[in-house]
Amino acid sequence: MTASIEKLRLEAPSTGAVEWRISEGLVDYEDAVAEMQARAAAIAAGDAPELVWLLEHPPLYTAGTSADAADLTEPDRFPVYKTGRGGEYTYHGPGQRVAYVMLNVKARGGDIRCFVRGLERWLIDTLAAFNVTGERREGRVGVWVQRGLKEDKVAALGIRVSRGVSYHGISLNVDPDLSHYEGIVPCGITAHGVTSLMDLGLPVSLPDVDLALHASFERIFGPTVTVPQREKE
Question: Which residues are catalytic?
Answer without folding.
Answer: 187
